Structure to design on (276 residues):
């Protein structure tokens, strides 16, 4: 397995969706490859950061405007 | 779709404010999160939320309910958000190939050793999610094409399965997995370039 092969399949590995045999082969590559270990660690961390950054809340004033907007729509209907 | 959701949809379509309020409590935050994730604009996301709720009220009663209401709502939200994005802010988006790892002919990573072994993963989240690092992360997300962001939000923020996302975005599971992987790699690359050099 080359580094290109390893990086190609990281998503399935991180998501726990990889057949055990392939995961074992990837882990053997990782054990001997510092760049790929660094890549995996930072790839995993990136996913976590993206998820946290994406958890935006709808501002309260926007929720109030939505309520008013929908109330008006219902009144007109 | 649960009987509860169906009842709420029917009542909301008949002008029942309480049913609409219940649907809002259940779905408005999720719709906003996805809409903002795709459009990257609070005013655009607000318009999307309004559009989606109008569709829920106008078309919800006729919704067949083979899929979960949540999936149907995610699908409408994705479509409305992508339509809103069309022709807007495209100048910020960068061709993804420039942000993906490169390899030597023998399959090893290209680039100097210090870069390919750079591992900033032990940096605390609070440090990475503040100040210049946070600004860079947000800019990196901005640079992704909108349909990549849609998959990223649905998978990594909403925590849906590849199969659910494929149904929502109307693509194959294989295409969803490829898009998600490329989006994560593009973000990782930009963070690494910054965190390794601080520039």
């Amino acid at each position: 397995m080359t580094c290109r092969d390893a990086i190609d399949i990281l998503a399935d590995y991180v998501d726990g969706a990889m057949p055990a045999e392939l995961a074992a082969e990837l882990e053997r590559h990782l054990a001997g490859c510092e760049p790929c270990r660094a890549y995996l660690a930072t790839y995993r961390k990136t996913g976590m950061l993206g998820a946290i950054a994406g958890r935006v809340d709808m501002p309260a004033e926007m929720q109030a405007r939505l309520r008013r907007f929908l109330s008006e729509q219902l009144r007109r209907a | 779709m649960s009987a509860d959701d169906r009842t709420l949809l029917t009542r909301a379509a008949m002008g029942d404010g309480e049913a609409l309020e219940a649907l809002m409590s259940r779905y408005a935050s999720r719709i906003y999160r996805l809409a903002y994730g795709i459009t990257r604009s609070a005013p655009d996301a607000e318009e999307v939320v309004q559009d989606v709720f109008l569709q829920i009220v106008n078309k919800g009663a006729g919704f067949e309910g083979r899929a979960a209401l949540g999936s149907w709502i995610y699908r409408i939200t994705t479509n409305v958000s992508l339509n809103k994005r069309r022709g807007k802010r495209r100048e910020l988006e960068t061709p993804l190939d420039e942000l993906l790892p490169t390899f030597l002919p023998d399959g090893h990573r290209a680039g100097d050793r210090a870069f390919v072994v750079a591992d900033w993963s032990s940096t605390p989240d609070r440090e990475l999610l503040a100040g210049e690092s946070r600004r860079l992360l947000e800019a990196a997300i901005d640079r992704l094409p909108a349909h990549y962001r849609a998959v990223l939000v649905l998978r990594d923020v909403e925590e849906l399965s590849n199969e659910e996302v494929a149904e929502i975005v109307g693509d194959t599971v294989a295409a969803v997995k490829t898009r998600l992987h490329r989006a994560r790699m593009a973000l990782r690359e930009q963070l690494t370039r910054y965190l390794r050099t601080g520039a």
